[in-house]
Automatic annotation (TrEMBL):
InterPro entries: PPR_rpt, TPR-like_helical_dom_sf. PPR repeats lie at residues 17-51, 52-86, 87-121, 122-156. It holds the Pfam family PPR. This is Pentatricopeptide repeat-containing protein.
Amino acid sequence: MAWGLFKDMKNAGCAPDNSMYNLLLADRGKYGKVEELFVLYEEMVNKGCTPTTITQNILISSLVKSNNVERAIDLYYDLMSRGFTPTPCTYGPLIDGLLKMGKLNKAMIFFEEMAEYGCKPNSAIYNILINGFGKAGDLETALELFDKMVKEGIRPDL
């Protein structure tokens, strides 16, 4: 539906804005159409729309959802080298993807990196970590993370 509306808008001479592009990017990502997602992203940039943090988070999340975690990490570092300001919505998919791949240490590096960029973890980040370490059988780390979350005043909502 959104895709048809987008085509109709373009045919009518209406220029899509960031919100419309973000909606369409999320749609492509939701259905695992990563190559279409990046073609659309390039179109967005070429048409003069400046990608927002939301746009970049959609790209990262979509890559992780389509099992392209390493590509998502490469994109993250590329964005960071260009002054990108990450949010918990940036880190959540990356950490989750790494945990699902069994890369627990690398997931913790990203978690620790959040503080370096002034990005405070929220309950969603802690939930991802606690669940990931729990599923991996590392209950000690899961409990340490739970304790840290509580000490930081973040209300558990597991």
